[in-house]
Design a protein that fits this description.
The complex is a heterodimer of chains A (97) and B (27). Chain A has 2 helices and 3 strands; from the N terminus they run E-E-E-H-H. Chain A is of the alpha+beta class and 97 residues long. In chain B, 0% of the residues lie in helices and 44% in strands. Chain B is built from no helices and 2 strands. Classes of the chains: A alpha+beta (97), B mainly beta (27).
Chain lengths: 97, 27
């Protein structure tokens, strides 16, 4: 969250059983965002590691009015960083975890 | 709960709820 002002975390424990994750995103540092956004609200959404892209989710969030177009890159980056971390964690866990 | 709002966009569901006070950084 340091550089985008946004925080993304798992909304539910990742049981590594399938490619779908429940993620939660919220604004941790409003000063770092350019456009209008809702401050104290967390947005929970599902993310499929095989079919979804962070850019696509960010675009949907902008279209839904959660964030301004000028912040869509920051939203996509925050989601991408978290998803990358989750993938790395999954790779480290033994098969059938 | 009344505080949770569900928004659908292009088949994706977003559940909006207040951020717990404990998670908000003192800005």
């Amino acid at each position: 969250a340091e550089d985008t002002g946004l925080r993304v975390e798992l909304a539910e424990e990742d049981d590594c059983s399938n490619s779908s994750l429940a993620l939660r995103l919220w604004v941790e540092d409003p000063k770092k965002l350019k456009g209008k956004h809702k401050d104290n609200e967390a947005i929970e959404f599902s993310f499929n590691l095989e079919t979804d892209t962070p850019e696509e989710v960010a675009y949907e969030m902008v279209k839904s009015g959660f964030f301004h177009e000028s912040d869509s890159k920051a939203v996509a980056k925050s989601i991408r960083d978290r998803v990358t971390l989750i993938k790395k964690t999954r790779e480290k866990k033994p098969a059938g975890w | 709960s009344s505080l949770t709002q569900v928004v659908h966009s292009a088949g994706r569901r977003f559940i909006v709820s207040p951020v717990p006070e404990s998670r908000l950084r003192e800005s």
